[in-house]
Amino acid sequence: MKNNIPKKLLFSEIEKIQKTLSVIKKNYLRNLDKLCFECLKTIQNDNKIIFFGNGGSASDAQHLAAELVVRYKKNRKAISAISLATDTSVITATGNDFDFKFIFSRQIEAVAKKGDLAIAITTSGNSQNLIEAAKTLNKMKIKSFCFAGNKGGKLKKFVKYPVIIPSSNTSEIQVLEIMIGQILCEFLENNINKKI
Fold first, then answer.
1. Cα angle 28, 34, 35; round to 5
2. Under a CB-based contact definition with an 8 Å cutoff, are residues 40 and 47 in contact?
């Protein structure tokens, strides 16, 4: 095996991400400003941000909630955020007793309240459990956003404010979604005590 194969993979991935970033730089990201300011308003009104997703996106949901609760770049008061992907007892009980498609919507019924804000994270935008969660958020009149690739998939129709990564490549979408999530964290950290 040639020892330059990882280097080729790295440079190929960088090139793909750079192309997608160029598209974003040219066209910006619809609803990114809305996301940041609505999250800030949510926190300043003593409500919470709810993240959720499947697989790698579940890890991103947990990661971003932790950045807000603990710290991103600087020490400040805790920001109220949770991930619905962390409670294995609730997730497995819901999957077993009802159906896997209800693992997030059931939790939203239990922990979300009007004034909260929810962010679904997905590469495909087609997971039924995210769609069910978005339907529940709409019924409860809770603001819903998503980070999604694949032109937003089916989820786009059910989420009020989609933030769509212009790519259908899973690895690119995942890199850029966590980048956007961390931009949100930095925005909140820098503005948490400012009036909007």
1. 95
2. no
